């Protein structure tokens, strides 16, 4: 069997993210496997005495108790996932454990296979854009590229959240970027292009923030990123100017975003009929729908400011009013991680969020001010940026309690715990 030897477990570090491409069921299976093998092989019980782990377990306990007290007897399908939220904490510890194994049995071939697999995804995405369907015949949906994800429009989010992990491996394995500069520029160019082609505006915006921050903090990537950004800009400009491809990205990424945020109806980039007074009066928070979600979430928060309305309480409320509230607009979640935590977990949940954010940012800037730029610190910076992107509060986002989101978040946390020990506690 693949996992007969303990050192073979390290392959899970690569299988877990790649399994997203096949489907969340397979991802959950690998998460379960990593937890089971961690329980079997780990002999270090002191892990659970670590202050960061205790903090995460307390947060998980709060989620479970909050859900039990507020959702019990109302909606069991929303209750059970929250009661077992602690599984994600165990999962993050198992990733920490797998990183320790990977350190003892470093194998660059696994990483190169990982990059090769992702490169196939990137090339297939671009092929789908030009061809109208990808190599497996999956067609473009609503002008958005999905590649092997088929009808799940998560390509951009997947690539965005995985980028810090890729950088972590690059520095952890001491990959010589200068020696492989042509391949590095090609890979990162395709990466940026694919995020853009996905049509996911939040992912593209966060990718720009991530790249800008990497450019400022990680000097060894500046040349590669400069060329990659130039290639991306030339590509995006060309497909827009010459009307190439089977999706109008200019319309979705810019014109439609402008219309939704200003409540205007500009049809083309050449439309000059823009009323500045109308824009200032009708300015929306992201869009009318997003602003409606925000109004409803804050209304629910005001009903129970200390504890919120419970995990998944926004969805539960919307079910109760048949998705037709008197105030705001219903959905399955508020579409913003900060607003969801405030409305569903209350001020106590917000306290956890703020404490975690302050902790992450403090250690990030502390090392930067100390001018720590060895590879192990670059790995730490990369994974820290991964957490920031996953928990970024000022853009529309997914459901914090969704398995897809939770797994990739706690996957990042596992790497963070490992790098923290190497950089802060050494």
Please tell me about this protein's structure.
With 426 residues, the protein is mainly α. The protein has one domain (6-247, 332-423). Helix content is 68%, strand content 0%. The protein has helices spanning 12-22, 24-41, 51-71, 76-83, 86-104, 108-131, 155-172, 181-197, 201-217, 222-241, 249-262, 276-282, 288-303, 313-320, 337-369, 375-390, 403-423. Helix 2 (24-41) packs across helix 5, helix 7 (155-172) packs antiparallel against helix 8 and helix 15 (337-369) packs antiparallel against helix 16 (375-390). The longest helix has 33 residues, at 337-369. The protein starts with 11 loop residues before the first helix and ends with a helix. The mean pLDDT is 92.
């Amino acid at each position: 069997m693949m996992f007969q030897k303990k050192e073979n477990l390290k392959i899970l570090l690569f299988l877990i993210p790649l399994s997203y491409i096949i489907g969340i069921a397979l991802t959950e299976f690998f998460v379960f496997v990593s937890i089971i093998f961690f329980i079997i092989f780990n002999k270090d019980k002191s892990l659970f005495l670590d202050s960061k782990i205790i903090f995460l377990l307390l947060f998980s306990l709060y989620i479970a108790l909050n859900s039990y007290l507020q959702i019990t007897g109302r909606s069991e399908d929303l209750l059970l996932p929250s009661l077992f939220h602690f599984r994600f904490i165990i999962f993050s510890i198992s990733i920490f454990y797998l990183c320790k194994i990977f350190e003892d049995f470093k194998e660059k071939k696994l990483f190169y296979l990982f990059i090769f697999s992702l490169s196939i995804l990137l090339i297939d995405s671009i092929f789908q854009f030009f061809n109208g369907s990808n190599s497996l015949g999956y067609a473009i949906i609503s002008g958005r590229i999905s590649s092997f994800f088929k009808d799940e429009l998560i390509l951009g989010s997947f690539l965005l959240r995985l980028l810090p992990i890729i950088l972590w491996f690059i520095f952890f394995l001491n990959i010589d970027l200068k020696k492989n500069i042509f391949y590095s520029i090609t890979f990162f160019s395709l990466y940026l292009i694919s995020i853009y082609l996905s049509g996911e505006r939040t992912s593209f915006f966060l990718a720009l923030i991530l790249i800008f921050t990497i450019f400022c903090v990680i000097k060894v990537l500046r040349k590669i990123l400069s060329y990659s950004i130039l290639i991306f800009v030339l590509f995006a400009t060309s497909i827009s100017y010459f009307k190439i491809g089977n999706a109008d990205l200019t319309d979705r990424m810019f014109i439609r975003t402008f219309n939704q945020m200003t409540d205007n109806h500009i049809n083309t980039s050449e439309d000059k009929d823009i009323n500045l007074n109308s824009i200032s009066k009708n300015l929306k928070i992201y869009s009318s729908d997003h602003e409606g979600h925000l109004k409803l979430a804050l209304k629910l928060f005001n009903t129970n400011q200390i504890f919120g309305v419970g995990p998944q309480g926004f969805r539960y409320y919307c079910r109760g009013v048949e998705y037709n509230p008197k105030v705001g607009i219903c959905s399955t979640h508020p579409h913003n991680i900060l607003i969801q935590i405030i409305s569903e977990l209350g001020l106590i949940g917000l306290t956890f969020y703020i404490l975690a954010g302050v902790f992450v940012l403090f250690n990030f800037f502390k090392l930067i001010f100390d001018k720590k730029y060895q590879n192990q610190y670059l790995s730490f910076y990369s994974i820290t940026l991964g957490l920031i992107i996953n928990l970024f509060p000022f853009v529309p986002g997914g459901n914090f309690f969704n398995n897809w989101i939770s797994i990739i978040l706690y996957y990042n946390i596992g790497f963070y715990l490992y790098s923290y020990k190497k950089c802060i506690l050494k």
